[in-house]
Amino acid sequence: MNKKMVAAALVILTLIALLLVRITVATPPSTVKIISLPANEYDPAVWGKHYPLEYKSFQRNLEMSASPTGFGGSVNYQKSTREPEILENFKGMAFSKDYAEDRGHPYALEDIKKTKRVTPQTAGSCMTCKTANLIDVWQEMGWNYAKTPISEIFPKLKFSITCANCHDPKTMKLRVINPAFIEAMNKRGIDVSRASQEDMRSYVCGQCHVEYYFEPGSNKVTLPWDKGLDPEQMYAYYAGEPSGFAQDWVHPDSRVKLLKAQHPDFETWSLGVHGRAGVSCADCHMPYIRQNGQKYTSHWVTSPMRQIEASCGACHDQGNDWLLQSVKSTQAKVWQLQRVAGMGVARAHEALAKAPATGDRIELARELLRKSQWYWDFVAAENGMGFHNPPQALNILGQSIQFSNEAVLTVRQTGK
Ligand code: HEC
Ligand code: HEC
Ligand code: HEC
Ligand code: HEC
Fold first, then answer.
1. What's the confidence (pLDDT) of residue 23?
2. Which residue has a Cα nearest atom 27 of ligand 4?
């Protein structure tokens, strides 16, 4: 063979190899048989009879253990034991009474029923992301469910987050059921019902793992995305007091009108290096597993660091140690600044508590603190401890520290 032929053969072999890699890495199992289940079948055990491998891994969501990074994990500890500044920063609202680390999907309904944040009068909107029974409630009541007391809705809720939240029971295709997400995506010009399978591998998660607020009056769950998905754009959106929404609560000491950030995982990921490269939530959190020649999607939705090989190894060849260390190192840096920022927010609340109640400078200090707290909370409430978007996390924590410092200085300059 001459050199040209060798080169050509090499190119062809490489292409075939790439194709094989692409097939094994990116395609879902082709052997899935579709069983049409009734539209109102929400019991995962019934689905599980037909899809035993997926069901068996789904059941692992019941396990509770710490994550190898020391962050996240499924152990239901109170966050204030590690970050006491939370008690000052969320004073006057429910998150100061109970703010536990999240755990697996099968616990979502149980946890909402028992958290101290919820009372019988709490709005029904709180159950939106906790149960597959949302489908019935939505059909029966539309957005009316959002303002109905949750105690009246609870009897209708039998199942936690289950197969039906993400799959159409007739076709097994991925679907999104949360009306708030569907509406917010529509406003961005995206019709979720026509999304590609690849996009759906993140949208099924994005329907719950996002920032939201309740529209005053209707209590409708609304996503603050009209100006964009980064924390500064959302802050600007809230500044316009959409539908009269001015704050989640008022801090009793500093009298600042505050916003509570809710797990903006989807937004943070979408602007990070993996999101922009098209790596979906499922790629890392629901990797493909091979077992006795069968390939299936892991339904154990947990920290990817519990199965690094499956979660990251499909794309990265740096090895488990390198990957774990790089995640830990990012998280340690973000954690350190998160504490500094959180304590800065707490100090600013204390400074304002001792300041005169009114005055232009005081109002300016309150605005600076509102912003500082939003920036800190945006990272603190996000679930990846910075990994989903390291530069963004560090940047907005830095800004949070700047704003709380300015707030304290501004109070001092009032001459008191
Ligand atoms: C490139 C891989 C990757 C992608 C893509 C990704 N994540 Fe993560 N995620 C991680 C890692 C790593 C952690 C940190 C886990 C730890 O600390 O143990 C994490 C943590 C989390 C946690 C907290 C887990 C816990 O144990 O409490 C949640 C929730 C989460 N991600 C949701 C999402 C959602 C939703 C998306 C898509 C919008 C997404 N992730 C995309 C890798 C990823
Ligand atoms: C119906 C809403 C909903 C959907 C859909 C959803 N999640 Fe969650 N997720 C939650 C809630 C609520 C919790 C917290 C449950 C608790 O602590 O009781 C949670 C917890 C988690 C955790 C923490 C588990 C642990 O062990 O600590 C991870 C990781 C996670 N979700 C990732 C994802 C990913 C990835 C997707 C998409 C494949 C997804 N979620 C889809 C609502 C949802
Ligand atoms: C949080 C969302 C979510 C939940 C809940 C969920 N799935 Fe899935 N499921 C997925 C994703 C994402 C895939 C990958 C689909 C793809 O890429 O086409 C998948 C794939 C599947 C497949 C295709 C075969 C495979 O393994 O890839 C089956 C079958 C399946 N799921 C069954 C179930 C069953 C049974 C349950 C309940 C016990 C369930 N799923 C719950 C998100 C979910
Ligand atoms: C589907 C492919 C895919 C998966 C799965 C994946 N990554 Fe990545 N990762 C990428 C791409 C693409 C980049 C962008 C840089 C590049 O091209 O190498 C990247 C970049 C990174 C970087 C460098 C980040 C930076 O800011 O430059 C780290 C660290 C990383 N990934 C860790 C992980 C970990 C940990 C996991 C598993 C939890 C994981 N990745 C899963 C594709 C993936």
1. 44
2. 273
